[in-house]
Amino acid sequence: MPDSKPVYDRWVWVELTGFDNESQDFGVAAYIDNAGFVPDVVSLLLFNPDFVHTHDGMETDRAFPVDVCTYGGHPYGVERPRQEWTRYQLAGLVRELHSHGAKVMFAVFDQFLTDEWIGQHPEVWHVNRNGDRVRSICPWKRLSDGAWYEDFFAAQLARVLEDYEFDGFHQADGYSHPRLPLYEGDYSDDITGQFVEATGITLPAGLGEPSTYNPDVIRARQAFIWRNLRQEWLRFYAGRVARFCKKIADAAHAKGKVVVANNALTRDPFQALYRYGVDYKLMVKARVDSIICETVNPGVSIGAESGMVAAPHYDFLAMTLLMKSYLPDTELHCLNNAHDVNELWDVLRHGPTLLEREVYCNSNLYHWRSDRTLERCSSGPVVCLADGIRRHEWEWLREWWDLGFAAAPRRVVGATLVWSDRALERQLDEFIATRRWTTHKLLHELTSRGAPVHCAVDIADIGVVNGPLLVLNPQLLPEDELAAVLAYDRGPVIVIGGETPGLPATDFGFEDCYGPGQLVCRVYGAKPSGSHDIASDEPEVIPPDLMGLEEPPTYVQELYFRKVSDSFVAACADVIAECSAAPRVLSRSEAIRVQALELGDRTWRVLVGNDSHYYVVTDLDMGREIEKIERVTAFPGTPPGFSGSTFGCKVPGKGAVMFDVTFAA
Asked: pTM for the full model?
């Protein structure tokens, strides 16, 4: 029997291969029995947007093309081959899911295999910077008759939502952001004309006139705009994406439905804007109801997306923390990176410890609210993709979720990150001019080296916090916000970023060796022990033309940043840990990372993670005499030994273990 509803949401994103159109109930009862719970939301991945484009009512039945029946039209899933689904069968599936208490949404991508409608409208395909049409819908374009594609899509969407009785639209990849990074496209006549009209900017002769896809003209446009009008182009796109979102949301809300959007290919608020022209705040103002964060570290870590330079575990944790900071009143759900038949990766079978750790870490990121409540960043998991999962694998997932969301901490042990919307607004200009580390880059590099930063607070609400504050890139704060931070007196203030006018002298601080404009660490209200020797790793060769840098074509490849020494980042992480009185790693500190939650006066929940591929035996110093330790996770099977303030444990490769540590009175 399905279990009872827990305190967090459980969503699934699933292809039609998860169900069976040869079964009277379309396999719904069997799916729920196998999963062991009724999902709060089922999002059906129907992939091809022609599902929306070609909808003309429910008067007659009709078979769907292969790439509606499976993602990309792949021929079989784990449990069964691709089946030919029809309109009436899909409507029946929705009814069956409703009868069990699940809400049902659907998602399509901008991509397609079959092209019944799309093939007749290449004018709305993306055009890359070489003038080539890409088989991807660019939703911000006009149709050949001059009508807006977004108006056509919104009207069709409203009919689909109503006719199939969907509860909402899952605005997924390609519809919540452009498929191409903005430096790669689209510089067609349509998009460039919209830019000129929206901004009043006049382009040089030959660039503003119709090009009829002349590759030389389009390449010249891209080069000119990206070098000379980059900020204007990014802001134009942010407004353009938001306008599309508003039309979609208005159409859905008018039918009593909701809209849930993916974030821009895993990217934090800054990189979403810089790479894809997406401003999440504008999306929410356009009435998108909630956001799904693409926390896909497990899949990326085992090669689902090859070429990732950054440590994806910390990159995506930092993204989630900053997403909640930027959108404190918006529900965020985190992708639970299970497997994907079409994309050829399977974390549940090829790297389950990665997924277990990801669940525990994602569910224990927090945000302080102005009413002094500590709120989780994640409202729950979205299993991606949720077909072909065996019963025992569902049992693993449910166990991990229950453990991850079980704690109700009154404090997160570590430094609280200070968030400022106004600093984010200033980051774009500074990054383009200097290529210094952004707040997201600083945060994930620090946490990957052991800095205990798993909680954030808005600059306006620092009065609710006790303990150390962490301020990244203080040079971006306006004077009043910088003054508020420096007036904080309930713990140390650690400031890391560019040299900042207005910062008072401090008894403790150091700077990186890579200049000009090197990063600086300053501490107020504490004097950490030890000295920090900052040494260069290798010479930095700064490109002479930062504006002419070639940008990476995909999200898994890092933007160009100025060099920062490993020793500087490690020293900053050590300072944060010491100022936080966080648990110290006494052995194998290169592999072990710790999160700690204060559950009561004498009890901490301790999450011990392992970056190594191998089992690691480690020792931790809790800083207080230990009275008792209870394991929370199934592994290890024997209780850890402890003495005084220290205990040892064994952690599986790329995995995590959790303990409740009770201190002596």
From this structure: 0.97
